[in-house]
Amino acid sequence: MIDFTNIEKYKENNRIEAKKAIGGLPHSIWETYSAFANTLGGIILLGVEENANKFLHPVDLPSPEKLVKDFWNIVNNSNKVSANILSDKDVTIENVDGKRIVAIRVHRAQRSDKPVYIDGNPLSGSYRRNGEGDYKCTKEEVQAMMRDAAIKTQDMLVLENMGLDVFDYDSVKRYRIRMKTYRPGHVWEELEDVEFLYKLGAVGRSSDGKMHPTAAGLLMFGYEYEIMKEFPAYFLDYQEQFDPNTRWTDRIVSSSGDWSGNVYDFYFRVYNKITQDIKVPFKLTGGDRIDDTPVHKALREALANCLINADYYGRQGIVIIKKKDVITLSNPGGFRIDVEAAKSGGVSDPRNSTLIKMFNLIDVGESAGSGIPNIFNVWEKQGWSAPIIYESFEPDRITLSLFIGESSNKKIAIKSGDKASKSKSHIQKYTIVIYLTEKISAKTTEVAALLGVKDVRARRLLAEMVAEGTLVTEGENKNRIYKLKA
Predict the structure, then answer these.
(1) pLDDT per position as a tens digit, 130-163
(2) Quick one: DSSP state of residue 385?
(3) Rounded distance between C-alpha atoms, residue 64 and residue 246, angstroms
């Protein structure tokens, strides 16, 4: 995370916090520990301060060993800190320019440990990292972390205050017809609707023995106005934005009142929209035409992941936007595992496991932990620009951007005025925005490395984004950095 031989090149950001600590262990270190643990992780540097230009430099700590000892004593005190998520190798004494400093590497906490809080109270002692500082979590953020910490997934909850009249049984009928097509002769095929929904996990039995909808059943098959009684922020939104002079050219929203508004029906309405422009090669299998491609399968996976992993108690709802060259899928709720682990596959920690089961039974979604790697593999084989996954906070959201038909070949000559060039520039600028949202600031060389282009190309893109009002600059010449305009 940090090259200690070049510490003067760094500034404080959302992953680095410097504290002088000459007078002992700073009280504010615990707010930062909580903030890093509850966000993306980070490194706390003791014996380091900022100079006039905000760059870091070491100071001479009188006793770094005492700081380390004091830190371990307090981090293991459950009255002060709710969880010690560090190991011995995470706290080290480093020699920088002849001065000794303390480096504390705080990892992103496992969901079962969140929220990591201080002073015995999660509501007043939970923090997160935003930009260059720590902020106290809202009650909503704390509750979201607590929901994710539960052993049972959110959608298993039996809603004892609701009856079975919350379901749109036309949606249930459509689901059963599709399941019969993909799983003919299934043992549930002849069951009555209520028994079928019970086996599916859409209905559960309460302590008094009566049947009630589960959260998964309500989301999958319920009427929108019934869903909102349990999930007040529930909203599903699909937009097509093909005309830059119009906010949207086509739209599907769960609140329109002319359809059920549930997750099941939304999935198929939207899937048909996002795949209608995908080219299908003529292919026969057993005399039947196969109108399915790896791209179709990857789009099914992406859409299902967006719906399955959403925190439906969270704000701002599901938002899916289709433009000419990019499809963006965004859902409330943060990652329950590390983003890189999700990309590599093999690790699964779904937020709504019953919804996964429901989709799998109708041939939507792959095996656990393989969805995101499959999407990346398909895009790579197509030669398209790699998808971008971004996790944001305040509120927690995950956004996946899929570039359609755009080549990832960086050797293609870029000519001004060329249509393909303009489209490629759009993707590169979008990538810069995503990067700066997380990293706060960057130099030209960093952006060039990010995009895999020469410095001169990166400099031109950054200058255009400054002129467009997207970015601002700080510093001059070699020290110039770029940030998103506030």
Answers:
(1) 866 899 999 999 999 998 887 677 888 999 999 9
(2) P
(3) 60
Report the Cα 130 to chain-centroid distance in Å.
16
Q: Indicate the helix (H) or strand (E) that contains 269.
A: helix 263-274
Q: Which whole number is the average pLDDT over 392-397?
A: 81
Burial 370-403 (b: 16+ CB within 10 A, else e): ebbbbbbebbeebebbebbbbbebebbbbbbbbb
The total of other beta-carbon atoms located within 10 Å of residue 284's CB is 8
Residue 101 β-bridge partners:
94
DSSP structural state of residue 232: T
Cβ-count burial of 202 within 10 angstroms (0-12 exposed, 13-18 middle, 19+ buried)? buried
DSSP H helical segments within 80-131, as ranges? Answer: 122-125
- Looking up tokens 């190991």, which residue turns up? 87
Beta bridge partners of 203: 213
Give CA–CA dist 91/43, Å, rounded: 10
**Rounded mean pLDDT of 85-101?**
92
How far, rounded to the nearest angstrom, does the alpha carbon of residue 264 sit from its chain's CA centroid?
A: 22
Structure tokens given for 345: 């596959």
Q: One-letter amino acid identity for 38?
A: N
Could you tell me how many residues make up the chain?
486
Highest mean pLDDT among 111-120, 241-250, 424-433: 111-120
CA dihedral (340, 345, 348, 352) positive or negative = positive
Cα separation, 306 vs 301, in Å, equals 9
pTM value is 0.73
Q: DSSP label at 158?
A: B
Q: SS3 for 237?
A: strand
